[in-house]
Amino acid sequence: MLPLPLIEKLGTLPGLDLPAFEGVHANSVAPTSIRINPLKVDGIGNLFAQSKAVPWCDTGFYLPERPFFAHDPNWHGGAYYVQEASSMALHAVWQQVVPAAREPLRVLDLCAAPGGKSTHLLSLLRADDVLVSNEVISARVNILLENITRWGHHNSMVTQNDPADFSALEGLFDLVLVDAPCSGSGLFRREPQAMQEWSPEVVLQCSRRQQRILSDIWPALKEHGWLVYTTCSFSPEENEEMLDWMCSQFACEPVKLDLPESWHIQQVEAARSGAFGYRFYPHLLQGEGFFLSIMRKKDAAGHWRPRVPAMNKMQIPVDALRNDWIADNHDLAYYRHKDTLYAMAPNALDLFRQLQPALHIRKAGVCLGEWQRNGLQPDHALAMSTLVHPSMPRLVLSREEALQYLRRETQLPASDRKGWQLASFEGLSLGWLKHLGNRINNYYPMEWRLRS
After folding, report:
1. Are residues 288 and 401 in the same domain?
2. What is the pLDDT of residue 351?
3. Do 93 and 201 have their domain in common?
4. What is the mean pLDDT of residues 229-251?
5. What pLDDT was estimated at residue 334?
6. Do the domain assignments include residue 74?
7. How many other C-beta atoms can be found within 10 angstroms of the C-beta atom of residue 259?
């Protein structure tokens, strides 16, 4: 039973069919959807049979039933991300808002964990764009790091900062995504227990938090930059009323999207400002409750002058990396911290050096591994990336053998080659192993291992 105060509030919204809205929450099951990683797979292909395309996302698909994803090696290898379909509308926003002919972008996903929208952005960005994925809550940062690492791109970084820490970075980002912490009513069908935690007081508390977050991040947005605001709430206080608040506080203009009627996404307008928002109702489309809006910054932004630390002149064995470990078809910059080596896109390294003194950076680019006297001890992130040299030996595993590897077992097929190899399943890298002749060492990360 949906909370009565929520129903009463929604009853004031124009055009909402309340009986149908209540019925879908009472009598239907939330659809299962995934978004594939175009960096690693060409399409839905052999991943899942009888899948159906998500209309507003070229890489999104509905599945006829929900499998046990933890027992699919393709998921562990970063072939796809399990994501609610409505939130994949970021794809349509990007296609309509971001011009094809443009300079490289700096993009911020401010409230990024667990990483659904960040991995989506990475699939939309060009190689010379840079994504910063931020999460302030310590308990949620590790899952964000894991998902970004699985996705395999080298033009991103992960930070752990309060939104207020970005206020000083004036005019730094071309696009900021604020997937705002909210009361979560849009997910009631998928998470019925969340109804017990919902109340009008929680909605008010969330709206105040959203205002603080938006106030903190606005200075970091460039003039003419885009702010994409989303929630998984039905409450007007967190949606249309938040658009009115933004228009009263900031010099901004709403961006209108042209969405096909067949998608059944409802365009709405805020009462005072007329700002455009887009509501996703589960009785009208295959997806959960979702809201999004886009604002463009009109006022002049300040210009942040970073204090860039001098680059230590540390020797980096680039030739050895290129010959033995790294494919030569990537434009890469390298960074060394003590004995650990990193590779990233040149623009990402420039931004990383600027942000180092200002933010708590948890990940930058791809960690290649530690350089030791006998060569590179490769990191798992290198195996998850597409940087690995094509001649790197691979141990091809069956599904059951892949699951054994993911459990960190060492009873794996024999190999006639000694040394470092990639554990491979259906052409997808799962991680490192080292064949020592009489045994195999499994280097799958202990904290990631499959426990079932």
Report:
1. no
2. 97
3. yes
4. 97
5. 95
6. no
7. 18
* Rounded Cα distance, 108 and 119, in Å: 12
Asked if pLDDT for residue 307 goes beyond 90, the answer is no
Domain endpoint, select from 265, 297, 329: 297
Are the C-beta atoms of residues 229 and 180 closer than 8 Å to each other?
A: yes
Q: Residue 442 — very low, low, confident or very high, per pLDDT cuts 50/70/90?
A: very high
User: CATH code at 419?
Assistant: 3.10.450.720
Residue 390, pLDDT > 80, answer yes
How many domains does one find in the chain? 2
> Residue 114, preceding bond cis, omega within 30 degrees?
yes
Q: Residue holding tokens 């919902």?
A: 198
Q: Verify that 270 and 144 share a domain, yes or no.
A: yes
Q: Does 39 fall in a domain? A: no
**DSSP code, position 326:** B
The pTM (predicted TM-score) of the whole model is 0.96
Q: Smallest Cα–Cα separation from 241: which of 262, 214, 222?
A: 214
- The structure tokens 């994409």 sit at 228
Q: Please tell me the predicted confidence (pLDDT) of residue 417.
A: 85
What pLDDT, on the 0 to 100 scale, is given for residue 12?
87
**408 inside domain:** yes
Q: In angstroms, rounded to a whole number, what is the distance separating the alpha carbons of residues 325 and 199?
A: 54
Angle formed by the axes of helices 138-151 and 116-124, to 10°?
30
In contact, 204 and 181? CB cutoff 8 Å: no
pLDDT tens, residue by residue, 252-282 = 999 999 999 999 999 999 999 999 999 999 9
C-alpha 363/C-alpha 341 separation (Å) is: 12
For residue 286, CA distances in Å to 31, 86, 98, 261, 368 come to 7, 8, 26, 14, 41
Same-domain pairing of 292 and 397: no
The pLDDT tens digits of the residues spanning 68-79 come to 999 999 999 999
Token digits of residue 354: 């600027």
The domain in which residue 419 lies consists of 393-452
The residue-averaged pLDDT of 382-409 equals 96
Instruction: Tell me the mean pLDDT in the region 60-72.
Output: 95
Contacts of 202 (CB under 8 A, 6+ apart): 183
Q: How far apart are CA 252 and CA 121, in angstroms?
A: 23
CA–CA distance, 328 with 389 (Å, rounded to integer): 8
Residue 97 inside a domain? The answer is yes
In the numeric block, which tokens belong to residue 66? 């929900």
- What's the rounded Cα separation, in Å, for the pair 197 and 189? 14
Nearest to 435 by CA among 395, 389, 396: 395
Query: What are the start-end ranges of the H helices in 228-312?
Result: 240-249
Distance from first CA to last CA of the chain, Å, rounded? 35
**Among 372, 106, 330, CA closest to 225:** 106
Contact (CB, 8 A) for 183 and 203: yes
